[in-house]
Amino acid sequence: MISSIVNSLDFQGEALKLRANRQQLLAANIVNADTPGFQAVDFDFATALRQQTGGINRASAPGVALANAQSSTTVLNRTNAAHLGAGGAGAGPQLAYRMPAQDSMDKNTVDLDMERAQFAENAIRYEATLRFISNNVKTLQAAMQSANGG
Length: 150
Hints:
By secondary structure, this protein is mainly alpha-helical. The protein is built from 3 helices and 3 strands; from the N terminus they run αβαββα. It has one domain (2-147).
């Protein structure tokens, strides 16, 4: 029973880390909306969560396909192990360039409306994950107090 509780909290903890990471990426995309040549990046949350929790072997993970059906992606390739952080297990999600629905004159791929929507959705899901963890901890505390006689 304890192992299932620990596994659940570990899973939610990994989800929380990935949500925070994605929030930073989306914020960087929004900040650079007017930067000429900036290439927006993102990652598929579900795939990243499976990778981080052992559901998929990193070496055999499929390419990233973002949730927005209107945009396609190009997987970022590392030409040097020092690029984009350290490689290997636990290195974080596989980032992908977001391909815009419409080209811009300055080659910037940030669609500000879509980025803001993704940012808001991710923030709501981050908050929900936090509440889930908090409620689990409160339930565990209540169970431990009642087991000890108050």
